[in-house]
Each structure stands twice: as C-alpha cells, then as structure tokens.
C-alpha cells in the first residue's frame, strides 16, 4: 500500500461486480461508508492499454480506498496496467482469477487460470515489480471436479511463495467452467466456508478475505472470527443501507449517515456536476433503487427513479420528488 496515505484495513469490502460497481455506484456507496474498501468492475488489460482510459479508470477521489480489478494473463500487459493503476491513484490492483464466464475463458483469464498457478505467479510478480501499491488476487476454491481442499492450499501456497502476494480474496465456491452460466456459478456450487477458514489456519501470515453468499452482519461476524476480512457482493448493491453500519461495526468509528434522505442530499453536488457534464440521470438512479429496501414506500421510490419516461431529460428535481414521496409514503408495502 502507498505509505503516503494511511488506509483502513480490508476488514469489509464490496465485491467487484460487472455492470454494477461502476463509478456512480461507488460514489453513492461512499456516502454510506467512509471506510469500506471499494472495487471496480473487472477491466481487461486490452481495454486499458488500447481503449478509453478515462472511461475505464476515472473515479472521484472520495472513493478511496479503492482497488482496480484487472482481467488478463499476459505478465507484461498486467505490469503496465498495474503501474497505470498506481499513477491514477488507486490503492490496490487486484487480479481476477475467479470469473467463470466463457467469454473470459476465451481470453485465457478468470477462473481457468487456477489451473496454471505458475502463470498466475508470473503475472502477479510482474505486477508487484511494476508498482508500489498492494497487489492482490481474487479466486475460487476450485475448478470443475477439482474440489479437494488440497488444490486450494497448493494454489495459494505456490502463488504466495513465487510471487510474494500476501492478500487472497477467496470466493468460497468452485467455478464450473462448462455447463453453468456466471449467474448459476454464484448460486449452484455449494459454499464451503470451512475451506477458507482452514486456509487461514494453514497460512496465518497471509491476509485472507472471504466472499460468497454473505448477506447479513451476523454472517460477517461469524466469518470474522476465522478470517481477516469479508467481501460482500450483491447484498451491498440491492440493500445498500446495510453499509450504514460498516464503519462503526468493523472500523471502530462513530460516523454514520443520519438517514437515507441525508445520503441522497450529500450526493447532490456529485449528481448535479454529472448532469452538467452531460451524464443522464439514469446512470446514477439505477444504483440507488435499493436504498429504501424494506421500508414502506420503497416500491414508489423504485418506480419513480426507474421510469424511462420520467428519466428522459430529468434532473435533480426528480430525485427530490421521489424523496418527497418517502415523507408521505404510499400505503402499498415495500
């Protein structure tokens, strides 16, 4: 980690989620927690080296601590991207060795790389040699029929020894490379949290984070008794208010957003700056639909802020209107 700025630990983080954890969601999440680690969507190396860097790498400084997740398998390209991540101000660069989609496999990266620990080590070592920020890896516990704990142990042991990586983020499911969609890969392979706990016992010197199927603060407390950190995915997106308790629970702070309405008003300067720059309001509102999940009137909140007709050429007053509805919510349930 860059020593210039002291960052919180990775005790709680929000998982990289393709099409979801873009800079608009991350900016919103930061109004709910100041200390949670945020991750970008996975970005492949080609998009950074040959595409629109501003589109893929741009972020607001308040998003830190922030990690860039990379997809790729060429050590030289990954090294270049790791250096770019450092230059842009990211706190961490993470290699994706967990995505099971066929599109990713065709590019020879993602979960299929678990079958090539030497290549993974070469990639991570090149990244570490190229930059001064933390280099981490996110992976599954196994691939297809390789379900024994020993496969996971040997993968982590080799990568740590050969590349010097100390932080492993483990999705506690196997990746099924053929026959299951990415969505099914998030639900169907059984969760084996005990594998991740055992990994921490076998490598006590490493930072081990657990991911997969974690939805409540009770779940998080259970896992933190065994590992160093917890990474939450879709629950943090669909029920973002859970983030309001993160700083106090996991970082010992006393800051907490006052209310859901206060979160949206704090976000207003960012939203209006984006609108002025030509960003459609829907780019922001699609990420805040779950803010009132479980609250009376939540259905109206979602309906107002997802209505294509209302969103066309809309600006901040539409959000104000949705907030006003929540002050006198409809009688229908959440």
From TrEMBL:
Output the NCBIfam families linked to this UniProt entry: PRK11815.1, yjbN
Name the PROSITE patterns for this protein: UPF0034
| Superkingdom to which the source organism belongs | Bacteria
Q: Name the gene that codes for it.
A: dusA
Q: What is this protein called?
A: tRNA-dihydrouridine(20/20a) synthase
- Reaction catalysed by this enzyme: 5,6-dihydrouridine(20a) in tRNA + NADP(+) = uridine(20a) in tRNA + NADPH + H(+); 5,6-dihydrouridine(20a) in tRNA + NAD(+) = uridine(20a) in tRNA + NADH + H(+); 5,6-dihydrouridine(20) in tRNA + NAD(+) = uridine(20) in tRNA + NADH + H(+); 5,6-dihydrouridine(20) in tRNA + NADP(+) = uridine(20) in tRNA + NADPH + H(+)
Q: Where does FMN bind?
A: 16-18, 69, 138, 171, 211-213, 233-234
Which residues are catalytic? 99
What job does the chain carry out?
A: Catalyzes the synthesis of 5,6-dihydrouridine (D), a modified base found in the D-loop of most tRNAs, via the reduction of the C5-C6 double bond in target uridines. Specifically modifies U20 and U20a in tRNAs.
Give the enzyme class.
oxidoreductase
Q: Where is the DUS-like FMN-binding domain?
A: 14-314
Which UniProt keywords are present, listed alphabetically? Flavoprotein, FMN, NADP, Oxidoreductase, RNA-binding, tRNA processing, tRNA-binding
Pfam families tied to this protein: Dus
This enzyme's EC code(s)? 1.3.1.91
**Which cofactors does it use?**
FMN
InterPro entries, per this entry? Aldolase_TIM, DUS-like_FMN-bd, DUS_fam, DusA, tRNA_hU_synthase_CS
> What SUPFAM superfamilies does the record point to?
FMN-linked oxidoreductases (SSF51395)
The question of whether Cell membrane is a record keyword is answered with no
GO terms of molecular function: tRNA-dihydrouridine20 synthase activity
In which family does this protein belong, per the annotation?
A: Belongs to the dus family. Belongs to the Dus family. DusA subfamily.
Instruction: Give site residues, Interacts with tRNA.
Output: 96, 183, 186, 299, 302
């Amino acid at each position: 980690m860059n020593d210039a700025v002291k960052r919180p630990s990775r005790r709680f983080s929000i998982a990289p989620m393709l099409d979801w954890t873009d800079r608009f969601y991350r900016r919103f999440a930061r109004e709910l927690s100041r200390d949670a680690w945020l991750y970008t969507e996975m970005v492949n190396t080609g998009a950074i080296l040959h595409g629109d860097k501003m589109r893929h790498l741009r972020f607001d400084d308040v998003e830190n601590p922030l990690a860039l997740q990379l997809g790729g398998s060429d050590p030289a390209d990954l090294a270049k991207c790791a250096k770019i991540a450092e230059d842009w101000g990211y706190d961490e660069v993470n290699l994706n060795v967990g995505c099971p989609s066929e599109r990713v496999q065709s590019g020879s990266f993602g979960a299929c790389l678990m079958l090539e620990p030497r290549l993974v080590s070469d990639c991570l070592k090149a990244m570490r040699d190229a930059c001064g920020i933390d280099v981490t890896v996110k992976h599954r516990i196994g691939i297809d029929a390789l379900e024994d704990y020993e496969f996971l142990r040997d993968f982590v042991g080799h990568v740590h020894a050969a590349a010097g990586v100390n932080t492993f983020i483990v999705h506690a499911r196997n990746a099924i490379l053929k026959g299951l969609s990415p969505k099914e890969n998030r639900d169907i392979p059984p969760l084996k949290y005990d594998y991740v706990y055992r990994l921490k016992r076998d490598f006590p010197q490493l930072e081990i984070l657990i991911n997969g199927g974690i939805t409540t603060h009770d779940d998080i407390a259970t896992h933190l008794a065994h590992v160093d950190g917890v990474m939450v995915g879709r629950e943090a997106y669909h029920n973002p208010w859970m983030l309001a308790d993160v700083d106090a629970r996991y970082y010992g702070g006393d800051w907490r957003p006052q209310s859901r309405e206060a979160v949206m008003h704090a976000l207003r300067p960012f939203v209006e700056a984006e609108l002025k720059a030509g960003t459609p309001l829907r780019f922001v509102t699609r990420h805040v639909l779950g803010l009132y999940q479980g609250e009376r009137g939540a259905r109206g909140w979602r309906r107002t802020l997802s209505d294509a007709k209302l969103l066309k050429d809309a600006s901040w007053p539409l959000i104000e209107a949705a907030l006003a509805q929540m002050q006198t919510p409809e009688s229908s349930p959440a």
